[in-house]
Structure formats: structure tokens, C-alpha cells
Design goal:
Elements lengths: L1 H37 L10 E3 L1 E5 L7 H9 L7 E2 L7 E7 L5 E6 L4 E8 L4 E7 L3 E3 L1 E4 L2 E8 L4 E9 L4 E2 L1 E5 H36 L2 H21 L4 E2 L2 E2 L2 H26 L1 H6 L1 H12 L1 H6 L5 H29 L3 H26 L10 H40 L3 E5 L5 E4 L1 H7 L17 H10 L6 E4 L10 E9 L2 E8 L1 H15 L9 H14 L6 E9 L1 H8 L1 H18 L4 E7 L2 E7 L3 H17 L2 E3 L2 E3 L2 E8 L6 H13 L12 H14 L5 H4 L5 H6 L10 H10 L4 H9 L4 H12 L6
Length: 766
């Protein structure tokens, strides 16, 4: 049942949608056509007639009206007379016929400043008015002035005087009163439609500018308002703004500002809209710069009187219009953008009507001025620009859809795993790489933590709360094959979600671990090398307490060089591996073996006494020498010598290693197999003593051995270290000189100096 209801509602929704979209569109078009064709207009303007008039310019205000009428009698009557920018008074006379109903004589010039009329029969005043006051039956209306003649019993000849500023045309229209009132309503209705429509479009462009944060739309808003004012000047509606009347003394200033701003905004709008095309083509850029230069005289000319201002803007406007029209033609031919096309068409409408009005005002071309003017251009340009905005929004929407599709494709195929989590840690969505890496643990709405080692979610939370690094590494669970993979995680909180990436770095981790192993281990034997042993030494030495013991042994293999010489380095390497295995089998978990290089090794003992370390060294020595090493048909017996020293708390690794090496080299095996040049060794350390300023006899006196000095009750030097030095001396040669030197060199320089100072104070030494 629910499925049936659901299907019915889906069909109803589809039907209503199509009815609204297609049926509504057809209904609006048909209703508009029927109204235009069949229904009468609500503005009945029948009965108006354009009058012929005779006119002349007269600067002398003292000329009597009789003389004016006589002069006008010789002027042939015409319907429109241009003032050609003259601001002198014009006298004109016309005949108004009697119609049996109230008659209105309209003088429709937006450039008229004042007007006054008289009955030509007796020169009685009929009315006078300026933009700020009126007298008699004269009134300010629409774009100019109008005289209420009432019901005329017979035809009347009317004499008028008018003053203009700007490119005015003198004309007169006789209206029946009802038709004139209807024309006023139509005038204000058209003005309201133009102002309202263009202001709504401007507000829409302003909202788009704010939302998109694109200042080109703000410039477009100002361009629309400037064109609106330009159209108002052309139609004579510029006497008001936003429903408020502009004072007459500000009217000329308002017109100059409106014309200059419309001029400048047209140039700047063009430059910004087609900046890419202009920059890519130097000749076009030169034309554009020419158009921009025309703004300078236009802005400066605002300081001039209106009569002088107009020729400047006509000339500059002609140069600007020709330049921009040429550029528009070139750009529209080459561009494939519909947005640029509609923008260009809108600007072309404004520019062409601008040029037409300039020509009409400058040369008196009036044939089409009623149909083609700035109002027409403003309306058409607004329509074109609205289409441009719609097209631009459509293209941006399509671009977003394409970008989303492309981003989705990239999201799915990118080799890095991407995931989105809720604040509770449940998976919202993941990409293909994440699902491939995590398998069943990559399903949506499953807990993210289930796919990783224990504590992974807590580490992610800690990272998000205190992101000290850009990423961190976690591991997944060990699978049935005993393998565990490592992942590099990057994440951040965005709104109420956690967005992150997961990158499989198992191979990298293994490579780094292998490189680290090779850096710290010997490539032949696999045990620690000098670098790795130094790390262990530092770690153990720094981690122990002051009462914890640490011992270092230095081990030297005998006869390994002979094996390398007779059987090659491969045989020597095999012997080294077998020796290392024997030593490691002898040591416990608290001892670490490392290779110093060649046939030299070192052992770090953690804990235990010096005697225990010595016994373990003896065991190592015995195990190495016990059985011969067999390689093919050859067998070798290897012996080793070991020097052992304790490492004091905080002792230096280099110094300890040197002491252990010296102790090892001082040792001579009972069988005499380890031959050392003890005399040369002795000279080196005696030279060190001489360098410190002591005489040789102080440490070579046969009457006092070095062990006796350390036990001397007056000296009491380092009683805690007595067993250490005793062991070292016991393992060294029996020569008193060599024993003393070996013991002396077991001390650090500071302690050695104290010992030597103590020795020097003994009376038996002198």
C-alpha cells in the first residue's frame, strides 16, 4: 500500500512541476499577446497635435512686443527649432485652435529654464514659470512647462519667451486637458518603471557583489545607476531622484555629474570586463588606453559652465564611443563567451545611443530622437546585462557542478585514503583508496578505531586538540599472516566533522628501519657497529643511577689478519660471523656486543660487579679459543685479548673506550701469542706525563710501586676505585714502569694530576 501511495505522489509531483514550468510559461506569453492585440490602452492620448511656430533669438530685453511680433511675421513657421546651445531668450509665436474643450499648451523641452506667454492680440500675460516658481496659468510639468488656456471660444495666437541651457529644441503641443493629464500619468509611470526596474537590477547586482565578493559586480551596479541617470537626463526625468525633487540650482550640476559618471563608468566597466582580452592583445590594449584617457578632460570639464562643458563631453564621448565600439567588435568576433557577448551588447546599446544623442544634439539630427535615445539604450542595455548575469550565474553553477564531479572523481581515484568522521568517531564517508587499504574496516557508519591498533582514536583526538605536528603514524592490527602495516595520518576539524587522510607508509617505514639498522649495525656480522654501540653506551650511561655499575670491555682477535691474507676476505668474514655467534651465545641479555672495525670488538656490561664482568670475559676468551674454526678443508684457531674497565657515573665514552683498549694492549697471553710493542706504548704515555711538567723519575722510582702509593695512608686517593686499578695493573705487564703507566692512564686528566701531585710530595721520591 505504501508503495502505491509513494508512486502516486511521485507522479503528481512530476505533473505539477511540468504544468508550472511549461504551462505557466505558455500562459504568460499568450496572455501578454492577447492584451496587446485586443485590449485598449489605459493611456488614451488622442487629440494631441504638434503646432508650427515661428521663432527668433533676441538678446535685447527692451524691444517692444509689437516689434517682436512684426519680426516673427517674416519667419516661416516650423515644428521644431534648435537653440544650438544658446542661453539667450528665444521668442516664438504659435496659433492654438479652439476645440470646444479645455486646452493645454505644452512646451516640452527638458533644457528650458524659464518660460512666459502672452496673448498676442493684446499682449495680456497668460502665465510665467521657472523651475522653482510659477505665475498665472503656467506650470512646470513633465520635461518642461505647460500653459492652461482653458476652453477657447476661438483660435488664439500665443506669444512666448523661453530661456534654455544645453542642446534644446523649441516645440509646442496642444492637448485636450484629459489627454494631457493622461500623458502626465504615462510620463510618471514610465519614469517609475525605468527607475524601479533599473534600481532593482542594480540592487540585485549589488547583492551578487556582496555574496560573491567580486568588486566587478559593484562596478556594474554603479554603471547601471549612472546609465539610469543618463536616461533620466535624456528623458527629462532628472529633475527628481528616488522620488525627491532636485532643487533647480542643483539641476545643472546634477546633469554634469550624471554625464561624467556615466562616461567614466562605461570606460571602467569595459576595461574590467575585458581586461584579459585587452592584456593579451597590445593593439587592443592601446585602443583601451585611449578610451581611458578621454575620462581626464571629461572630469576636468565639470568645472566649466554647462554650455562649455557639453562640447567637451561630445568630443570625448565620440572618441570613447568609437574606440569602445571598435574594441567590442574585435572582442565579440573572437570571444566564444556568451557572458561577454551579452555584456558587450549591453554596453554597445549605451555607447550607440550615446553617440546618437551627441550627433542629434550637435548637428540637429532629429528624425529618430523620439524612438532612439538614452532611455531606449538604458532599457535595452539593462535587459542585455540581466541576460549576462543570468548566463554568468548559469556558467558558474555549471562550473561548480563540473568541479564537484571532477573533485569527486579525484576523491575516488587519489591514491591517498581520505575519510570523514563524526565527532564520535564513526565513518561518514571514505574514498576508494581508503576502502582498498582498510577492507571491511572501511565501511561507512562503522567505528574508525576498529581498523587500527589500540589507542589510535585517543592519539587522533590528542593530535586534533594539540596539533604540534602536521601528521602522526599509527598501525593497524596484525593480520593472520603476522603482518602489520603503518599509516601516516593527517586530520583537522572542519565544522562538526573530522576530515583526514590516510597514507600507507609501510614500505617507507621498513626502508627507514632497514637504513637505520644498516647505519647502526655492521654489514658483515649483523651486530652493532661503532655508531650503534655509541648510542647504546649513551643510553645506558644516561639512564643509570649513580650507584648502578657499568663496565666496558675491548676485545682484539689474534691471527684474523693471517686468515684474510692466506684465504681471502670472504674466509675472514665467515670467521668473524662464527666468532660473533660464539660471543653472543656466551653473553646474557644484559651485555651488548659491537664491532669497532676490523678484528676489534667491544662489550658493554650493564649491572654486576667488575669481577663478574672479568669472569664473563674469561669465558668469552676461552670459548673463542676452545674449538678450531673450519672452512672447507681448512681449520683455524682464533685467540683474543680483552681489556676491561669500569665506567664511572657520567663517564665519557671515548675516554672509557681508550682505557679499555690500552688495558687490552697491555695484556700478554701466557703462551706469548699476543706480541705488543710495550716499549713504544710506554714512551707515548711517558711523553704525556712529561707534557704535564713532571719528571720521569717520579713515576719510575723502583722503591715505590704505583699500587703502594694508592694504598699509602697519607694519600688515601680514590679508595672506592682501588679494586679497579688493582685489576688493571694485575692484567698488565709485570714491569713496574708499565704497571705504573697503565694505572696512571686509567685516570681522567683531573684525577691524574691529583695523583701526580700526591706522588711528588712523597719524601722517598726525591
Amino acid at each position: 500500500m505504501q508503495a502505491v501511495i509513494h508512486g502516486f505522489m511521485a507522479m503528481l509531483d512530476s505533473f505539477l512541476y511540468r504544468l508550472s514550468v511549461y504551462g505557466g510559461t505558455v500562459l504568460v506569453i499568450l496572455s501578454a499577446a492577447v492584451v496587446v492585440v485586443l485590449f485598449p490602452s489605459q493611456f488614451n492620448l488622442e487629440g494631441a497635435s504638434a503646432l508650427e511656430l515661428s521663432a527668433l533669438q533676441q538678446d535685447d530685453v527692451q524691444v517692444p512686443m509689437t516689434q517682436i511680433m512684426a519680426d516673427l511675421a517674416s519667419v516661416p513657421p516650423i515644428q521644431s527649432i534648435p537653440t544650438r546651445l544658446s542661453e539667450s531668450p528665444f521668442w516664438f509665436a504659435t496659433v492654438v485652435s479652439a476645440t470646444g474643450q479645455s486646452t493645454i499648451l505644452e512646451l516640452p523641452s527638458r533644457h528650458a529654464v524659464e518660460a512666459a506667454c502672452w496673448n498676442a492680440a493684446d499682449f495680456s500675460p497668460l502665465g510665467a514659470a521657472t523651475r522653482s516658481w510659477k505665475q498665472g496659468d503656467m506650470m512646470v510639468t513633465k520635461t518642461g512647462f505647460a500653459l492652461d488656456l482653458g476652453v477657447l471660444p476661438a483660435a488664439i495666437r500665443v506669444l512666448c519667451r523661453a530661456t534654455h541651457t544645453g542642446p534644446a529644441y523649441i516645440s509646442a503641443i496642444a492637448w485636450p486637458e484629459e489627454a494631457f493629464k493622461m500623458s502626465e500619468k504615462k510620463f510618471h509611470r514610465n519614469a517609475g518603471l525605468l527607475n524601479g526596474g533599473m534600481l532593482v537590477l542594480a540592487m540585485f547586482a549589488l547583492m551578487v557583489s556582496i555574496i560573491k565578493r567580486d568588486w566587478v559586480y559593484l562596478l556594474f551596479t554603479l554603471w547601471l545607476i549612472a546609465n539610469l541617470r543618463l536616461a533620466s537626463v535624456s528623458a527629462g526625468w532628472d529633475v527628481e531622484w528616488l522620488g525627491y525633487a532636485i532643487p533647480p540650482e542643483w539641476l545643472i550640476v546634477s546633469r554634469k555629474v550624471s554625464l561624467s559618471m556615466a562616461f567614466s563608468f562605461n570606460v571602467m566597466m569595459f576595461s574590467k570586463m575585458f581586461a584579459k582580452e585587452l592584456n593579451e592583445n597590445p593593439p587592443l590594449r592601446l585602443w583601451g588606453q585611449t578610451a581611458q584617457l578621454t575620462c581626464i578632460p571629461v572630469l576636468l570639464a565639470m568645472l566649466l559652465p554647462y554650455r562649455q562643458y557639453l562640447p567637451v563631453i561630445w568630443v570625448s564621448g565620440s572618441v570613447m564611443g568609437i574606440s569602445l565600439c571598435y574594441l567590442l567588435a574585435r572582442i565579440l568576433i573572437t570571444t566564444k563567451s556568451k557572458v561577454a557577448f551579452w555584456y558587450g551588447m549591453g554596453m554597445a546599446m549605451v555607447i550607440l545611443t550615446w553617440l546618437y544623442e551627441v550627433a542629434a544634439a550637435a548637428f540637429g539630427v532629429r528624425q529618430l530622437i523620439g524612438e532612439i535615445n538614452s532611455v531606449t539604450g538604458a532599457l535595452l542595455s539593462s535587459v542585455c546585462c540581466a541576460l549576462a548575469i543570468v548566463e554568468n550565474i548559469g556558467q558558474e553553477r555549471q562550473s561548480r557542478l563540473d568541479a564537484q564531479a571532477e573533485l569527486h572523481n579525484i576523491y575516488e581515484v587519489v591514491p591517498v585514503g581520505l575519510f570523514s568522521l563524526s565527532e564520535t568517531g564513526r565513518i561518514i564517508h571514505v574514498n576508494g583508496a581508503y576502502r582498498h587499504m582498510m577492507g571491511d574496516f572501511g565501511k561507512e557508519d562503522s567505528p574508525w578505531r576498529d581498523g587500527f591498533e589500540s589507542g589510535a582514536w585517543e592519539r587522533l583526538q590528542a593530535f586534533l586538540n594539540h596539533p604540534v605536528d602536521h601528521d602522526f603514524v599509527i598501525k593497524d592490527h596484525i593480520d593472520s599472516d603476522g603482518q602489520q602495516r603503518s599509516y601516516l595520518v593527517r586530520a583537522a576539524r572542519i565544522n562538526d566533522q573530522i576530515e583526514g587522510s590516510l597514507q600507507d607508509i609501510t614500505t617507507r617505514v621498513e626502508a627507514v628501519a632497514k637504513l637505520q639498522f644498516l647505519a647502526d649495525h655492521d654489514s658483515v656480522t649483523g651486530i652493532l657497529n661503532r655508531r650503534g654501540l655509541s648510542k647504546i653506551f649513551d643510553t645506558v650511561n644516561h639512564a643509570r643511577l649513580d650507584h648502578d655499575t657499568m663496565t666496558l670491555a675491548y676485545l682484539d682477535l689474534d691471527q684474523l689478519a693471517l686468515v684474510n691474507h692466506m684465504h681471502g676476505s670472504l674466509a675472514g668474514d665467515a670467521v668473524l660471523k662464527m666468532v660473533c655467534k660464539i660471543i653472543n651465545d656466551t653473553l646474557t641479555e644484559h651485555q651488548v656486543l659491537g664491532r669497532m672495525g676490523g678484528d676489534k670488538f667491544a662489550i658493554i656490561f650493564q649491572g654486576g660487579t667488575l669481577e663478574e664482568a672479568a669472569l664473563l670475559c674469561e669465558r668469552v676468551k676461552d670459548n673463542v679459543a676452545r674449538d678450531p674454526f673450519k672452512l672447507a678443508e681448512h681449520s683455524f684457531r682464533i685467540h683474543c685479548s680483552i681489556g676491561l674497565v669500569p665506567v664511572p657515573f657520567g663517564g665519557n665514552e671515548e675516554a672509557a673506550m681508550r682505557l679499555a683498549e690500552e688495558a687490552c694492549y697491555a695484556h700478554v697471553d701466557e703462551d706469548g701469542r699476543l706480541k705488543r710493542h710495550l716499549e713504544q706504548w710506554r714512551r707515548v704515555h711517558e711523553a704525556e706525563a712529561l707534557a704535564e711538567g713532571w719528571s720521569l723519575f717520579q713515576i719510575r722510582d723502583e722503591g715505590i710501586g704505583f699500587l703502594d702509593i694508592l694504598r699509602h695512608p697519607d694519600a688515601a686517593i680514590f679508595p672506592d676505585d682501588f679494586e679497579v686499578w688493582k685489576f688493571v695493573v694485575r692484567r698488565a705487564t709485570h714491569s713496574p714502569v708499565s704497571a705504573a703507566t697503565a694505572a696512571l692512564n686509567c685516570l681522567d686528566p683531573a684525577h691524574r694530576r691529583v695523583v701526580l701531585e700526591t706522588v711528588s710530595k712523597q719524601p722517598r721520591l726525591h
